[in-house]
């Protein structure tokens, strides 16, 4: 696990703050054969069954998972995100542990009190055919449950919630995100071609999306074409109905006045009163409702292939 916080230039004109939580999961099940004295490593199939894998396959998957963690850490570093912790899990995640971690993450606030503008959750691990996360004890974590935790912590603060998943998405969560109307939510994932080994059940494509996506968002020389024909990994994203209405937190009148008093001579303090124009006199506010409807319509029917989050990285779709 890793917690990360990005604090951009906290001037009076830009106070955008991002906080992220990342989990990359490498799960193998130990099967103790009743008639033998040794243990065999198993990997689950999508149908719930499990098959033994060789030591070489285990080592390869382990190294791949570690590389994936390093790539995500590089993404955090590139975008000035401070990683607080990073744990490598090889025994699965318990529901109580995930619930505690996510609730704590969702309740994080800035040092001066307000909530962060954007919360990012990254997940790479096992999922069920319906897209729900596969936890230990055959327990599944649904998007609905995550959103309940998010809603309780977020209230009406106006923060965004971005989920990035490196899994072979089946589209179920994508449809659910599009139905959310009271929160700013986005889901970035991928659709991987059927590259499953018929003997081991290992999906070799999982993890490749993160490498491509991070490369696209961290390198100016990366010319990846997400629209090219024959792509084995296709990027997909989905946003909630209200996504287009999101606005970064702006300084309040009190913030502006306090900043002015601390940085400008006392003789100029009366000027700030003249600059604080009441919102009711803003002629543009009359058109805000129409503009909101247009933005929502455009995002629903004409979503961009590349969606800028405003934090230096983009969501993409093939």
TrEMBL record:
Keywords, in A-Z order: Glycoprotein, Membrane, Nucleus, Transmembrane, Transmembrane helix
Q: Which residues cross the membrane?
A: none
Q: How does it sit in the membrane?
A: Multi-pass membrane protein
Task: Specify the superkingdom.
Answer: Eukaryota
Q: Does the keyword Nucleus apply?
A: yes
The answer to whether the entry has keyword DNA-binding is no
Q: Where in the sequence is the signal peptide annotated?
A: none
A GO cellular-component term linked to this record: nuclear membrane
Compartment(s): Nucleus membrane
InterPro entries to which the protein is assigned, alphabetical: TMEM168 (IPR029713)
Q: Which family does it belong to?
A: Belongs to the TMEM168 family.
Q: What is this protein called?
A: Transmembrane protein 168
Question: Which species expresses this protein natively?
Answer: Stichopus japonicus
Give the taxonomic lineage as stored in the record: Eukaryota, Metazoa, Echinodermata, Eleutherozoa, Echinozoa
């Amino acid at each position: 696990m890793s917690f990360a916080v990005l604090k951009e230039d906290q001037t009076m004109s830009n106070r955008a703050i991002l906080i992220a939580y990342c989990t990359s999961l490498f799960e193998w099940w130990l099967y103790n054969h009743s008639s033998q004295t040794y243990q065999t490593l198993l990997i689950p199939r999508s149908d719930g069954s499990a098959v033994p894998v060789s030591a070489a396959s285990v080592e390869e998957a382990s190294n791949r998972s570690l590389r994936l963690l390093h790539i995500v850490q590089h993404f955090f570093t590139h975008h000035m995100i401070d990683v607080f912790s990073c744990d490598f899990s090889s025994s699965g995640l318990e529901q109580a542990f995930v619930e505690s971690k996510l609730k704590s993450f969702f309740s994080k606030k800035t040092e001066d009190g307000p909530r962060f503008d954007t919360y990012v959750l990254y997940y790479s691990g096992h999922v069920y055919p319906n897209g729900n996360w596969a936890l230990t004890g055959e327990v599944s974590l649904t998007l609905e449950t995550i959103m309940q935790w998010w809603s309780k912590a977020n209230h009406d603060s106006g923060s965004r919630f971005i989920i990035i998943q490196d899994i072979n998405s089946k589209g179920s969560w994508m449809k659910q995100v599009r139905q959310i109307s009271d929160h700013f939510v986005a889901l970035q994932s991928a659709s991987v071609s059927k590259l499953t080994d018929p003997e081991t059940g290992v999906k070799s494509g999982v993890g490749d999306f993160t490498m491509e996506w991070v490369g696209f968002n961290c390198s100016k020389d990366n010319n990846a074409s997400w629209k090219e024909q024959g792509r084995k990994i296709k990027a997909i994203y989905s946003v909630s109905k209200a996504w287009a209405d999101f606005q970064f937190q702006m300084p309040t009148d009190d913030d502006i006045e306090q900043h002015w008093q601390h940085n400008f001579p006392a003789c100029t303090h009366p000027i700030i009163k003249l600059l604080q124009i009441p919102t009711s006199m803003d002629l543009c506010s009359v058109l805000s409702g129409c503009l909101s409807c247009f933005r929502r319509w455009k995002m629903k029917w004409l979503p961009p292939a590349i969606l800028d989050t405003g934090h230096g990285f983009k969501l993409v779709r093939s």
